[in-house]
Every structure is written in structure tokens, then in C-alpha cells.
Amino acid sequence: MGAPLPPEPERAAEVRRRFAAEARAERPDLAALCLLVGAAGDGALDDAGLDAAQIELDRLAGLLPYRPGGPRAWALALAGLLGERCGYRGSAADYQRLESSLLHRVLERRRGLPILLSVVWMEVARRAGAPVYGVALPGHFVVGFGPAEEQVLADPFDGGRVLSGGDAETLVAGATGGPLEPGMLRPADPLDVVLRVLNNVRAWAAARPERSDVALWAIELSLALPSHPARLRYEWAQLLVLRGEFLRGAAELEAYAEVVAEVDDSAAERVRRQAGAARARLN
To answer: Superkingdom, according to UniProt (predicted)?
Structure first.
């Protein structure tokens, strides 16, 4: 079975509007945002499916013991429920599946990328009252429990295994070749988590040029976030041209050139030439 297909244009536009509104809320809901990412990527996910996924997170939270203790007790309780009892974990093969980045499919399959499994851990734990947050280690997302002085890390990709300090250092060294820095252990902002999820989707699509539809919706949602890399708008314009939307792509390239011109005239001129070439392809 192939990767899921995006919804029809009207539904896609509605999902983008809802995503943008949630991203700009005073307290963005991480589960809602990740489920809307799923709705942008999977046309089979309707509003009833969105509600069902939230209900499943509530159900799982209800299976946790009542306030089991400190940070380590919380981490072990989540590992016992989600990792051992329910079988949530990941494998190398999950990196090849788009579904591994879509929360509703992760809840169905109980498999996913580290960051999506961490979202499941966080959302279940949060509903149960745990002091939980995401920790965006370079190359491998994990979950943290408790304040900095008592912090306990767990790896949902490995079934919720509680990590020692040496384990975290090994993960960072494997990803960067460098040491674990204290700043790497800070709680991740929910919107940064969502952007990282969308970056994973874009990476999946980049390896599959025939799925430029996936790259398109991932970039469009990224642009709907209040803060995003400026170069994303350039990538979006290039993708529009690649997909044959020459006028729209040219207009976006010209708009990006105006921004770039404030810091680099020569780069802006190169982008303007690209816009001209895009318009010429209509002839």
C-alpha cells in the first residue's frame, strides 16, 4: 500500500486555515496541530477521525496509574503502558514511511518516528498530569520528565527506555560527533516540535520527487507557523514552478527577491532572473 494522498483542494484549504489559527493561539495545542498535519497529508482523515484520535489519547491517559510519584516513576509508568503493554516503538523501517510522521497513523500502527512517538508520550502523560515535555536532542527526539535538577529522559522510539546521562551523550555524539550541551536538554516549544515534524515530511518527499504534492503541503503548513525559516518561501516558489504553476511561482519568487534585496542585491537579482525564466515557460 502506497503513502496516503492529500485531500481535495477545498478540504486542504480548510485544514490549512485551522492549522494557522491553532498555531497562532495563545497556547497552541500540540496534538491538534499534529493531527492537522495528518489531515493535510491524508485525505481519508475527516473530522470524525480527528476526534477519534483525541479520544484515543484520552483513553490511554486514563489507563495510567494516578500520580505514580516523581519524574522517574512517571517515565516508568509511561514505558510500562505505552511501550510494553501497547507496543508503541519504532524501527529503522519507519523512517521510510510517510505514515510515521502522521499522528493519527502512528496511533493506529503504534509505530512512528522518534518525534511522533514522543508526541504520543507527551500528550498521554500531559492528560494524566505528568510534568512532561519534549527534548529535541540533535538527530533524536526524546521526552523529559520533571524540572532540570531532577530531569529524567525517556526514549519512546525504544519503547520508553529510561536514559542515563551516558545514553543521552551517546545519542548526541552519534548525531553530531560533539558533546551533549546543557541547552540541548531544555523543553522544546510546541511550535518548534511541529516545524521539526514538517521538516521530516519534507525530507521524506525530497527523496521521492514523484511526491512533490507532499512537499507542497508540508511547506505550506510550515509557512503558516508564526516563525519559520525565510528560505522556505523560496523553496515554495521553486516547487510551484516545478509543478507547472509558472505564474504563481514567478510571483512568489519576485516577492522573495524583494525581501532578499534588503541584504543582498546580487542574490535578489538571481532570484528575479529565475522568476523571469518561470514566466517565459508559459510561451
So the answer is: Bacteria
Alpha carbon distance 235, 252 (integer Å): 10
- Mean pLDDT, the chain, whole residue set: 95
Read off the amino acid at residue 257. Answer: A
| Spatial separation of the C-alpha atoms in residues 95 and 145, rounded to whole Å | 26
Q: Which of 204, 106, 194, 199 is nearest to 156 (CA)?
A: 106
Q: What is the distance between the alpha carbons of residues 258 and 265, in angstroms, rounded to a whole number?
A: 9
Residue pair 23/191 in contact by the 8 Å Cβ criterion: yes
- Rounded Cα–Cα distance for residues 119 and 196 (Å): 12
Cβ atoms of 191 and 227 closer than 8 Å: yes
Dist. CA 230–CA 222, nearest whole Å: 11
What's the longest Cα–Cα distance across the chain?
69
How do residues 18-76 score in pLDDT, each as one tens digit? Answer: 999 999 999 999 999 999 999 999 999 999 999 999 999 999 999 998 888 999 999 99
Cα 125 to chain centroid, rounded: 19
What are the start-end ranges of the E strands in the chain? 132-137, 140-145, 152-155, 161-163
Find the helix or strand (DSSP H, E) in which 261 lies: none
Amino acid at 27: R
41, 214 Cβ separation under 8 angstroms = yes
